[in-house]
């Protein structure tokens, strides 16, 4: 039992938050580009390298795949007969990671009942948990939408400097802060050194960068399940247009990274 407890404690400790200063984060980005990788790049890393299989040399696989050379990935090794579908999914992430049109599109799985759509989605959610993300934090409050620290910087004014000093390409800068970050920046009177950065892992159970939204009646489903809503309890303390009065609890809010 002790070994089980030790292994559990070790696995749990690896997913705990690790806080650093904004300056330390930027310095580390110079040597490790994965610290500002987008979700498509992290997904490709989680999926792993492809394995080429020449089915013409296999008496069983040859007739099934018409002696073609197929690609297999260890992350999807249990999905038999879905090699073409998996390759299309990997292709989507590969193009999105390159900054092509797919980065603005949503991956949509369409097929008959029992075709493996839910299993593929669950596997994608599972493997993305292995890749850490870096989230902006102010005092003891983490960004409710888990936004990247690079969102603080204007690509027009600071893009060239960040590229020269830390090797962060200008196109990596989102160029838009969340309302929460703007509110904190005003409170700090523009001092970005008061922000910190937290390293954490996506989690299905804690809804950290992974969210599930149940479908409902298209005529009356509340859009707040996707984009959040005003928290009535906070209106006693804040005006309705104050970011702190808004509950960023929607699926799209939770899954920005």
How would you describe what is shown here?
The chain has 257 residues and is an alpha+beta fold. It is 36% helix and 12% strand. The protein contains ten helices and eight strands. It has helices spanning 2-14, 22-31, 39-47, 61-65, 83-97, 117-128, 155-166, 179-187, 224-227, 251-254, and strands spanning 18-21, 50-54, 69-73, 133-138, 141-142, 195-200, 229-230, 246-247. A four-stranded antiparallel beta sheet has the order 1-6-4-5. The protein has a two-stranded antiparallel sheet with strand order 2-3. Helix 3 runs antiparallel to helix 5. 20% of the residues are buried.
List its salient traits.
257 residues, alpha+beta, four-stranded antiparallel sheet, two-stranded antiparallel sheet, 36% helix, globular
Secondary structure blueprint with pairings:
Layout: H1 2-14, E1 18-21, H2 22-31, H3 39-47, E2 50-54, H4 61-65, E3 69-73, H5 83-97, H6 117-128, E4 133-138, E5 141-142, H7 155-166, H8 179-187, E6 195-200, H9 224-227, E7 229-230, E8 246-247, H10 251-254
Antiparallel strand pairs: 1-6, 2-3, 4-5, 4-6, 7-8
Helix fraction by DSSP (H/I, runs of at least 4): 25-40%
Helix/strand-derived category reads alpha+beta
Q: What percentage of the residues does DSSP assign to strands (E)?
A: 5-15%
Strand order, largest beta sheet: 1-6-4-5
User: Rg to the nearest angstrom?
Assistant: 21 Å
Mean pLDDT: 88
| Total helical elements | 10
How many angstroms does the end-to-end distance come to?
37 Å
Q: How many E strands?
A: 8
Low-confidence stretches: none
Succession of helices and strands: HEHHEHEHHEEHHEHEEH
């Amino acid at each position: 039992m002790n070994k089980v407890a030790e292994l559990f404690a070790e696995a749990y400790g690896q997913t705990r938050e690790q806080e650093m200063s904004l300056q330390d984060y930027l310095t580390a980005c110079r040597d490790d580009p994965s610290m500002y990788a987008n979700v498509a790049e992290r997904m490709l890393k989680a999926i792993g390298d492809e394995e080429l299989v020449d089915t013409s040399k296999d008496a069983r696989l040859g007739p099934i795949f018409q002696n073609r050379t197929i690609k297999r990935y260890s992350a999807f090794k249990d999905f038999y007969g879905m090699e073409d579908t998996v390759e299309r999914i990997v292709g989507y992430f590969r193009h999105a990671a390159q900054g092509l049109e797919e980065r603005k599109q949503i991956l949509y799985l369409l097929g008959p009942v029992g075709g493996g759509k839910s299993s593929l989605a669950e596997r994608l959610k599972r493997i993305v948990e292995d890749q850490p993300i870096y989230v902006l934090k102010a005092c003891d409050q983490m960004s409710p939408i888990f936004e990247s620290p690079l969102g603080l910087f204007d690509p027009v004014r600071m893009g060239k400097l960040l590229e020269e000093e830390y090797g962060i390409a200008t196109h990596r800068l989102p160029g838009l802060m969340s309302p929460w970050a703007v509110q904190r920046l005003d409170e700090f009177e523009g001092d970005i050194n008061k922000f910190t950065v937290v390293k954490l892992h996506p989690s299905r159970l804690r809804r950290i960068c992974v969210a599930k939204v149940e479908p409902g009646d298209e005529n009356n489903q509340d859009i707040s399940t996707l984009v959040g809503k005003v928290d009535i309890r906070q209106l006693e303390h804040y005006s309705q247009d104050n970011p702190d009065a808004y509950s960023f609890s929607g699926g799209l809010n939770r899954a920005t990274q």
